[in-house]
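Example 3.2
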Amino acid sequence: MAILLMLKIFLAFSIVLGNGLIIMAFVVDKNLRLRNNYFFLNLAIADFFVGAICIPLYIPYESTRIWTFGRELCIFWIVIDYVLCTTSVYNIVLISYDRYQLVCNAISYRTNQTSISRTVIYMVAAWVLAFLVHGPAILNGSSRQRGGTECRSQLLFTDHYIIITSILEFLVPTILVTYFNCCIYWSLHSRRIVRGNPVLTPNIPSPVQGNSMTCAFFSKMCLPKQDEEVPSSSVKKMRKKSFFAFLKTQGETETASVGLPSLSHSNSVSVDLAQRQKLLRDRKVAKSLAIILGAFVFCWAPYILFTIIRSVRKDKELNPWYTFTFWLQWVNSFLNPFLYPLCHKKFRNAIKKIFFFKKANGFTTDVTF
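Structure, written as C-alpha cells:
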C-alpha cells in the first residue's frame, strides 16, 4: 500500500511539473505564442489543475473512504474534476482540428494564423461546454444529497445521464479526432501519388533563340550585292565584319541555350525540395496526432466502459477495476505534455531558458538535449 501511495503522489507531482513547464514556456518564450500552441497551453492549464487539485484531494479520501473536508469542498471537487477532465478532452479535439487545418487547408490556415480573438473563443468554448455537460447535473444532484462521510457517490447520476455524458465526453471527441486523422492521412497519401507522377512542362520557345536567328539573318543581309558598284577592299571588310558578328551571335545563342535549361532545372529542384520538406513536416504532424489519439483512447475507453457497466449492474465486485480505470484517465493528463509539446524543438528550447535562466533574445537554439 505504501508503494501504491507513493506512485499516486508521484503521478500528481509529475502532472503538475510537466504541465507547469508548458505554461512557464509560454511566459518565457514569446515565439511560442502562436495559434496552434495556444491550444496546448489550454490543455496544459486543465491538466495542471488535475494534478494540483483533483488528485491531492482524492488520495486521502480513497485511503479512508471518509470525506473530512466539508460538503462545499466536496461539491467543488466533484465539479472541478469532471470539468477539468472533459476540458482536457475537448482541447485534444481542438488540437486535432488545428492540425487538420494546417495540413489540409494550409492557405486559409496561414491567413487566420494571427486571429487571436478566434483562438481565444475556441479556448473559452472548451471550458464552457465542459461545464455544461457536467456542471448543472452535479449541482442539481448534490443539492438533494444529504450530508455524510461519502463524497463521490454514483447515486448523484442516473443511468441516462451517464450514457449521455459518456457520448459527449468520449464517443463524439473520438469520432472527431479519428475523422481529422483520416483526412490528414488521405491528404498525405494523395500528395505522395501526385509526387510519384512526372509533371510535363510545356516547351516555351526562347526569345533569345529567336533574336539569334534574326541577327544571323540580318548579318547575312549586310553583305552587298554583286551587281552593286562597291570597291573590292570595302567588300572584304564588310564580309569580314559580318562573319565575326555572325560568330559572336552564335556564341551568345549557345550560351543562352545552355543557361536557360540549367536555370529551369534549379527552380524545379528548389520547388521539389520545398514540397518534400512540407510533406515531411505534415507527416510528423500526422504521427503526433495519431499518438495523441491512441493515448486518449487507451486512457479513457476503459473508464467509460466500466462506468457504464457499473451503473447498470450495481456490482461492488467491479470497484477495484473501476478504481484502476478511474486513475487511468488521470494518467492521460500525465502523458499529454510528453506527447507533443516536450517533443517539439521550440518547446524544448523554451524549457532550457527556464532551467538555465537565459534571456529569450540571447538564447541560441543550436544546443539540444
